[in-house]
Amino acid sequence: MDTKPPQTSEQAPVCTCGAVKPKSNKAKKWLKYVVVILSLSAVYFITKKPSQRLTMTHEEWDIFIKDHPYEAPAADAFRSPCPFLNTFANHGILPRSGNATYDDYYRAMTIAGTTPSVTKSFLNSVFYAYKEINPSESIWSDLHKAPYVTFQHIGQHNILEHDISLTRLDAAQEPDFTIPNAERIQSIIDTADKSTSMVGEKQLSDFRRGKWNEAAARPRSTYHFGLFFQFTSAMECVLLLDYLGHDHQISVDHLESFTLKERIPDDWYPLEQPLTTMNLIKRTRSCFMSVRKSKA
Ligand code: HEM
Ligand SMILES: *[C@@H]1O[C@H](CO)[C@@H](O)[C@H](O)[C@H]1NC(C)=O
Fold first, then answer.
1. Contact 215, 222 (CB under 8 A)
2. CA nearest 93: which of 125, 61, 124?
């Protein structure tokens, strides 16, 4: 109770003491510099583009792709069930061997217009999901991410690869996931809008629903299309229509080039700005619902 007043009166002389005064002036000066530097750097970080610019302008892409010509895959190269991975590898944007590190996938995806946060969360799951567990090592080693993931790993059935795909037959019909099915792709092309030659969400969803109905008529053990895969299929609908295509549609020429020839069309260029997470969520939800609502 009686300790407080003496304390303040004891502190007062210390503060007004001559040795401290010039110091506090100096500190004030420094503080000014610090405030100026902090505000400048705040302005810098708020206005500057992401530290690593990931997407390209149309002009930058045209220069970039000249250095990344198409080459058919070598006999010993790995290929995947993903048209994007195969196509980018055929142009050397991903390793042509089909054996890639986290950084390789990160670069390819962000060039295509995925945001850093979406890319990191997706790739972290991938690099845990496809990690080979070595039974002779400790359990703790299971917690490490894979050092690389080959396209062959990515084809393992029912991890990411699933039935009722747009471009592949179901695993029970064609176990080789690297082979795009020309007939299937042609039937999607046939559904394109006749005046614009564009394929959109409705066409993809009706197609998928049709293939789902066909599979459901087969013996139950020959296909699987659970909730998780319905969700990843909806994402693949967005990957096709908004990253390979633009604005939730894709031209039949581009569709055929990416999925059947696995070659980047000459007149194509990737998103100039990443697709926002909000748009990604909205469009994925829309693709998901449209398969369930389809009357096909
Ligand atoms: C922005 C980058 C990407 C785009 C535009 C893209 C595009 C696509 C598309 C359109 C499909 C559907 C093919 C079909 O239904 O037949 C697909 C399937 C697939 N993608 Fe990708 N992809 C991307 C990144 C990746 C990455 C990084 C991985 C794995 C590391 C991956 C793994 C797969 C797999 C396993 C499938 C097969 C799913 C199925 O069974 O249908 N994709 N991708
Ligand atoms: C993939 O590449 C890594 C080096 O990055 C190598 O150690 C590994 O053996 C390769 N895997 C296959 C299956 O070729």
1. yes
2. 61
Take atom 11 of ligand 1 and give the residue whose Cα is closest: 236
| pLDDT mean over 125-134 | 92
**Does residue 152 line the site of ligand 2, with CB under 6 A?**
no
For residue 222, name the pLDDT band (cuts at 50, 70, 90): very high
Best of 239, 240, 268 for a ligand 1 pocket test (most atoms within 8 Å of beta carbon): 239
Look at ligand 1, atom 39, and give the residue with the nearest C-alpha: 161
Q: For 25, what's the count of Cα atoms within 13 Å in the CB-facing half-sphere?
A: 6
pLDDT value of position 22: 55
Mean pLDDT (whole number) for 280-286: 98
CA separation for the pair 111, 114 (Å, rounded):
7
Burial, 146: exposed, middle or buried (Cβ in 10 Å; 0-12, 13-18, 19+)? middle
Ligand 2 mean position, distance from CA 66 (Å): 28
The CATH architecture to which 46-293 belongs is Orthogonal Bundle (1.10)
